[in-house]
Design goal:
Layout lengths: L6 E8 L3 H8 L15 E3 L4 E6 L2 E7 L10 E4 L6 E3 L1 E6 L2 E9 L6 H24 L1
Antiparallel strand pairs: 1-8, 2-3, 3-4, 4-5, 5-6, 7-8
Length: about 130
């Protein structure tokens, strides 16, 4: 039986200012450089984007540009309901922290949920590396 843990809060510290990190991470076309599950991202009309994934083509909506570090996005898989993915950049001294909330999907096993968390952490590490090398 799956555990009752339905949410994981994942975070990393980035040695770049919030403004620099946001300028890169808020651009949907940059997601393909670090979000390995999304593959190539193609812009579409009405603020929606498409991405080719292992499960097929998904629709993605991104939060509007904002001064608060909000990087939320919504992913709609080919055969499923829209998935909300909250992300925030928060100033931390000369750098910033990136917080990613991973919600456990209905009928997801403990093993799959942990694997998803590990995958997200790997992607966040890539984003950190990209930002700190800039």
């Amino acid at each position: 039986m799956p555990s009752s843990r339905l949410t994981r809060h994942l975070s990393i510290t980035i040695r770049r200012s919030l403004q620099d990190a946001y300028a890169f991470a808020s651009r949907p076309e940059n997601f393909a450089q670090w979000a390995s599950g999304l593959g190539k991202i193609l812009p579409q009309a009405n603020g929606e984007w498409l991405a080719d994934t292992a499960e097929g083509q998904v629709k993605i909506r991104f939060s509007a540009h904002n001064p608060y570090g909000v990087l939320d996005h919504w992913v709609t898989p080919p055969a499923g309901a829209e998935i909300y993915i909250p992300m925030r950049l928060i100033a931390n001294g000369d750098g910033c922290d990136l917080h990613f909330t991973l919600f456990r999907l209905e009928h997801m096993s403990d093993e799959k949920f942990e694997a998803d968390a590990d995958w997200v952490l790997r992607d966040l590490a890539v984003l950190k590396q990209l930002l700190e090398a800039r």
